[in-house]
Amino acid sequence: MSRSTTTAKAPRDTPAQGRGQKAASAGDRPSTAARWGAEAFGTFLLVFGGVGTALYASAFPDDGNATGVGFLGVALAFGLTVMAGVAAVGGVSGGHFNPAVSVGLAFAGRIGWREVPGYVVAQLVGGILGSSALALIAADGPAGYLASAQDAGFASNGYGDASPGGFGLAAALLIEVILTAVFVTVILAVTGQKAYAAVAPIVIGLTLTLIHLISIPVSNTSVNPARSIAAAVYGGPVALGQVWAFIVAPLVGAAIAGFAHRALTR
């Protein structure tokens, strides 16, 4: 498992590029529009695949049916979608699909700060398009399906009564900071050398799967503000009221990871 016609300065490396590669010249880089489009597509895929699995398949057709994919299936869905997205368009944009990843890479010096706002906007647009597509599909489902999904929070992140396991705000904040820091650290490590380029999508996807297995019971797993906002848009007032935690905590975790990586690799 993050965004004028003048092309921004090429980053030293991103999730799809290794430190051993020569930096591409400005003329060789994909256009700004292409990079933003790739980020929007990847975030759309992440939300549509991950949140969609949580909405439609986690307990299909009801909580008592053993054919539902459960927490494991949802965790795999998020991991597989980010793996597919990085493999598909990582070479265009770097494959962030997550504002926290973009911020973490900027703190680490992997991308310029001036690239971050455009990436984040693209990620938010892609994520909301993904959740909107899921809402449209649910609206044509069995009677009351969309309303039921919204009443249940639309797979939003939460704490307290909105936490799958009833965990409080402090637990949700702590686990999101820790796991986002872990996620960004893995991304920085696995994309730091050209030799790892072929396995980077797999490692990143499996790391996101593990993160979900750990934290779904606590916070329903964010580590991605775009994913959290996209679900909260359709999750009702409780989800919207709590989404701040899943913006702040991942960004803090990403900043810690990026700053630490830069300090330790100077």
UniProtKB/TrEMBL annotation:
InterPro entries: Aquaporin-like, Aquaporin_transptr, MIP, MIP_CS. Keywords: Cell membrane, Membrane, Transmembrane, Transmembrane helix, Transport. It is found in: Cell membrane. One of its GO terms (molecular function) is water channel activity. Residues 1-29 are annotated as: Disordered. GO terms for cellular component: plasma membrane. Its main location: membrane. The chain crosses the membrane at residues 40-57, 69-90, 120-139, 167-190, 197-218, 238-260. It is a multi-pass membrane protein. Belongs to the MIP/aquaporin (TC 1.A.8) family. PANTHER family: AQUAPORIN TRANSPORTER (PTHR19139), MIP17260P (PTHR19139:SF199). This is Aquaporin Z. It comes from Clavibacter michiganensis subsp. insidiosus.
